[in-house]
Amino acid sequence: MNSIKKERIDYLDTLRVVACFLVVLCHVGDYYAESATGEFGLAWSQLLTLTRPCVPLFILLSGTLLLPLKVDSGTFLKRRFTRIVIPILVWSVLYVFFPLPSETVFGGPANAFTGKMNIYVYNLMMIPINFTASNIHFWFIYSILGLYLFMPIISPWVKNASKKDMLWFLTIWGITLLFPYIRMWFPKIHGESNWNNHGMLIYFSGYLGYILLGIFLHRYNTFSARKSCLIGGLLFVMGYIITYNGLWYDIGRLNSQKVAKVNDEGWVIIETLIGYLTLNVAMMTAGVFMFFQKLKLPRIIQKVMNELSRLSFGIFLVHYILYLWIGAKLIPAWNLHPGIEEVLVAIIVFVISYFVAKAISYLPKSKYIIG
Length: 371
Description:
Blueprint: H1 10-28, H2 42-50, H3 54-66, H4 73-97, H5 119-126, H6 139-160, H7 163-176, H8 179-182, H9 208-220, H10 225-252, H11 264-270, H12 279-293, H13 299-310, H14 312-330, H15 338-361, H16 367-370
């Protein structure tokens, strides 16, 4: 089959860069969760809220760019998995052996073998099963790979679905985004129980909704540039306010207000109302998408965005080790406002990650390293 030339869409390139930077900012924020008093920092909470659209944007862009499929299922899956799986495997192995500042390494989900094996053997064994402390930043890649497997199935529907059809799905999906709130009072709903986790609307839930939301906005956002930016901005601001207040509401429910004393259950609670599958985060994500969709950047800036977008996956792959070590060196040496400091460190990590990815791109077979 003849290869299909990729068509670059400027606003999608811009959104990919935005999403990638927000991921970096989110990870750098781990250094700033604890304020000088030992409690959760105000600047950290403001910037953490800002970063919430990062993962949904990546998923939104996947649907917008890939569906409906332009090649047969086999070719599509081979291309996707070659471009994503091989680099992820390479970097997952590298991250097992990279020397990391121990105080910044978080654990992955526990299982029957946790703590019972050599840590290097354990982390290597877990790569095809789940993320661990060594590659925790790859957690959402597993979800994206699952969506790739499902794309050949939904591609015919996406191709033929009307605006009304897509709105029907997105409306029910939107209802499922309210479940995190409902579950605070009713943990099991719609047929769920301790022995059945598959409730009535499970097939309308999850990240698939972001795939279809991206396609819907790409097809049917016919607003003028001014209206699209205005509506997008309003959606983002409203979603931000709800998310920010939800974060502090959840912090208030913790076992301790001291970051160092928050237990594992507490960190789960923090994610309740700022989770990626909440209506408020979906509002922020749709808002960012609509804002940049019709925003025309100066040509020179757009060229920079196009270049950064081309290497965005490479930036994502390499940034984590750089953030750990650069942060460990810079942060103790600075004495700036934590919000300013966090943004500056994120910019430095992002820029250096770009140059590292750029250098790798000149190597033979670099697509197997940085996609």
